[in-house]
Every structure is written in C-alpha cells, then in structure tokens.
C-alpha cells in the first residue's frame, strides 16, 4: 500500500487544493497522512471536516519539515506501507500522477522517484532534476540538456527534493529516516536521496508523472523577495534559511567525497554568503 505523507503549517488554501487533487487521481489505491504541525488557521479542524478519509497527525509546532515528514512516515510504516510518497502541501497533482509514479515504481522497485514539476500558472516545466558535480560545485539541469523528444520515462539524477518523492520501504530499512537532528528543514531531502543512492538505490526523475508547483511560494524565494539584514541573518542561520551554513556543513561532510570536502566547503560558504544579495 502506498501512503502519501504531507507536512503542513497553516496555508489552508494550498492544503485544500492539494488534497482535492489527490481525490481526483485515476489510481485511488493509497492513503494520506497529513502532519499538522501546530497550525493556527484552523487547518486541523478543516481537515477533519472536509477530508475525513485523511489521517491527521498533530505536531508540536516545532517539527519543521524533516521531523514532520518523519512523524508521518513512522505512522505509515506502522500501518504496513510498502511505499511512501512525501508531498508538500503547496502542490497540485495531475490526475494520473499517482498512477504514473506507481507504474514506474513497479518497473524499478528499488528506485526513488521524483516527478517532472510544472509551474502551476503557466504549465511550463520548471524542475526536471539535475546532475551535480562535487568537484566544480556545478549543476547540470536536465531541462536544459534533454531534447524535448526525450522528456519521458526515467532519467538518473544525483538527488531529489521531497515535494513528490516516492520511496520504497526498503530504503528506510537500510538507511533509516530523514536526518531530523542535523538537517531539520532544508537539505534533508537532498541528503536522504544522496545517501540512498550511495547505498545502491537508483534515483530518477519520472518525466511521465507531473506535479504542479508554485515556485514563488518557496521559503527561499520569499526571503529574497524582501531583502534585509534580518533576512540575510535568517538566510544564513535560521532553521528555514536556504543558505543555512550549519546545515550545509552537515550535508557536505556526509555526502561530499572526502578529498573534495575542503574545496567544496569553501566554495559553498562563498556562494551562501554572497548569493542572498546577488541572485534575483
């Protein structure tokens, strides 16, 4: 049985749209667990009223993404899940999203799969995976290198984000859950999929499965939209900071090939210290 785990904190309109899209799936054989981490906008009550088929796990308000996802995963594993799909609440699944994810999961039963992401407004592809070089600290964006006629099926990548990540239960049995102690919010998904790949689990983007996303709603985009010294501090040191230096250090030490660690850290620190003001 597939379990879909969605961590939420407020933003009920997004959660409602996401869950409605799951109700419209052509493959309905799955269960949904929403981890409500102390929402103050009535999310918990609305979930129980409007979506009685959804299991709600209440958080403390201090779980953030990683511990929230882990709480849902633990509940799913206790109920016999054989696959788990982590999903953000600010996404809308295409009607055949689950069907196409499960189709390829059965063909590649050990693989972690992520979808092709489309902009919810324009329906244009915005994320199709990347291949990362630890030596040059550079990313090869598959959307920029794949010819249009090859944008189907599975394509190998270095890591995947957690907003639509399908994980076979064997991965948890081998490497455990997401690293909530060292990576409480950002980079936990990239870390988890990188560790899984090194343990022999393939990591693919599934170009046949589509997920509508709102790129402008990410925490990093909102922080950069209103630049300030306080925002810069949060960017580098806040739990939700996209450039959090502590998180980046943990990620590098866990995943970068040992001989490349010093250069990789210096390069990464420089990018995070300057990138907040340089990138639009």
Automatic annotation (TrEMBL):
Q: Where is the Glycosyltransferase 2-like domain?
A: 4-109
Q: Pfam families attached here?
A: Glycos_transf_2 (PF00535)
Q: Name one GO molecular function term.
A: glycosyltransferase activity
UniProt similarity note? Belongs to the glycosyltransferase 2 family.
Q: What PANTHER family does its record include?
A: GALACTOFURANOSYLTRANSFERASE GLFT2, RHAMNOSYLTRANSFERASE WBBL
User: Which UniProt keyword terms apply here?
Assistant: Glycosyltransferase, Transferase
SUPFAM superfamilies attached to this UniProt entry:
Nucleotide-diphospho-sugar transferases
Keyword Transferase, does the record have it? yes
Is Metal-binding set as a keyword in this record? no
Q: Which Gene3D superfamilies match?
A: Spore Coat Polysaccharide Biosynthesis Protein SpsA, Chain A
Q: What is this protein called?
A: Glycosyltransferase family 2 protein
